[in-house]
Design brief:
By secondary structure, this protein is α/β, with parallel strands linked by helices. It folds into 2 domains: 5-13 and 256-379, Aspartate Aminotransferase, domain 1, CATH 3.90.1150.10; 17-254, 3-Layer(aba) Sandwich (Aspartate Aminotransferase, domain 2). The protein has 13 helices and 12 strands. The protein has helices at 17-23, 39-58, 72-85, 100-111, 129-134, 158-167, 228-231, 239-254, 256-277, 303-312, 332-336, 341-344, 358-379, and strands at residues 5-6, 66-69, 91-95, 115-119, 140-144, 172-175, 194-198, 209-213, 281-284, 293-298, 315-316, 347-351. The strands form 3 sheets. It has a 7-stranded mixed β-sheet with strand order 2-8-7-6-5-3-4, with helices on both faces. A 3-stranded antiparallel β-sheet has the order 9-10-12. A hairpin with an 8-residue loop joins β9 and β10. InterPro entries: Aminotrans_V_dom, Cysteine_dSase, PyrdxlP-dep_Trfase, PyrdxlP-dep_Trfase_major, PyrdxlP-dep_Trfase_small. One of its GO terms (molecular function) is metal ion binding. It catalyses: (sulfur carrier)-H + L-cysteine = (sulfur carrier)-SH + L-alanine.
Length: 383
């Protein structure tokens, strides 16, 4: 029987064995509440703070600048709402290609009376710094632009934008969930005010994330009911998940060069294979993309039919963000890039990990080629 092939790592990644090993004691014997003063609680507290330190060091931050959250979605929400609640400014600038965690928060803020300007990308999914700057107003309280797009892998100009906004004294938040596994981040070199992270995109556990909040950034707590996270996010910390997140970051740093090389090689093998085996396909947003994410349009093929056919073969790909894949709507990212809806509905996302083998890549290419041809014949659009 053929082994399954998992090519949906932008949705979530497998748990690294070292992460699972490190978490195990905190799912059993080490069960104290980290807010408790007795030794059981303090044992848990030390584990949480050690994990916080590992993550902060990885991005050049201080531990006190890192807030643990339940994931990237909560981190995005806290960033936007927490900053605007602490300001008298009522305008926010973002892009049309953001994750729904940002876009739906913006919609909610608009319902509360805030104003939001949505900047469009170019045909490659790239948002120009000049477009962001042109949207600024005297009452702009925050700019939010993701670092790496979760559907196309397009890298946004966060370094330059952060410097431009710093000169103008405008705060910048970036959803860095997909950037953390692909881009070396140093907040001492990039003057961004807030960054969102998620554990399960880097071979860590689900249900844990973090918000980097640069010291001195105005912020009003959104989740209240306790003094955890320095009064910035109430609720008992998820100790086991925090430990797992910290170890996942340690492994990321230790394996960085090997992972980057391996994923780049996998991407090259995959695209070369497609080039030989399939006709009439296009890579979307490739000009400024990380190697781990490929968004591909297969002309004449319904993307959802291709995803289901491959799933029956034990091969996992997706039609876009896992947070919206069940909505059966065309990708807002690809539409914002100006891609016609018919082509958007023929587009899939394929995302790699460093664990995939060459044999698995070859098998994926073979089955994709088979099903693309079969579906085109069934649709009467064989090319």
């Amino acid at each position: 029987m053929d082994l399954p092939v998992y090519l949906d790592n932008a949705a979530t990644t497998p748990l690294h064995p070292q992460v699972a090993f490190a978490m195990r004691p905190f799912l059993g014997d080490v069960y104290g509440n980290p807010s408790s003063v007795h030794q059981f609680g303090q044992q848990a507290r030390r584990a949480v703070e050690q994990a916080r330190s590992h993550i902060a060091q990885a991005i050049g931050a201080h531990s006190r600048e890192l807030i643990f959250t339940s994931g990237g979605t909560e981190a995005d929400f806290l960033a936007l709402v927490g900053v605007l609640r602490a300001s008298d400014k009522r305008h926010l600038v973002t892009s049309r290609i953001e994750h729904h965690a940002v876009l739906q928060t913006c919609t909610w803020l608009q319902e509360l009376g805030y104003e939001v300007t949505y900047v469009s990308p170019d045909a490659t999914g790239y948002v120009a710094v000049e477009e962001i700057l042109a949207a600024l107003r005297p009452d702009t309280g925050l700019v939010s632009l993701m670092w790496v797009n979760n559907e196309t892998g397009t890298v946004q100009p966060i370094e330059r934008l952060s410097r431009e906004l710093s000169d103008r004294r405008v705060l910048l938040h970036s959803d860095a969930v997909q950037a953390l596994p692909s881009i070396s981040i140093d907040v001492n070199q990039v003057p961004v005010s807030l960054l969102s992270f998620s554990g399960h995109k880097i071979y860590g556990p689900k249900g844990i994330g973090a918000l980097y909040l640069r010291e001195g950034t105005p912020f009003s707590s959104v989740i209240r009911g306790g003094h955890q996270e320095r009064d910035r996010r109430a609720g008992t910390e998820n100790v086991a998940a925090a430990v797992g997140f910290g170890v996942a970051v340690e492994q990321l740093r230790a394996e960085w060069e090997d992972r980057v090389l391996r994923i780049s090689q996998v991407r090259e093998q995959f695209l070369s294979g497609l080039q030989r085996a399939v006709t009439h396909w296009r890579l979307n947003g490739a000009q400024h993309a990380v190697p781990s994410i490929c968004n591909v349009t297969f002309t004449g093929v319904q993307a959802d039919a291709l995803v289901m056919a491959l799933d029956l073969d034990g091969i996992a790909i997706s039609t876009g963000s896992a947070c919206s894949a069940g909505a059966m709507e065309p990708s807002h990212v690809l539409l914002a890039m100006g891609i016609p809806e018919e082509e958007v509905l023929s587009s899939v996302r394929i995302s790699f990990s460093s664990f995939i083998t060459r044999a698995q890549v070859d098998r994926a290419v073979d089955r994709i080629a088979y099903h693309v041809h079969r579906l085109r014949v069934l649709n009467g659009t064989d090319l």
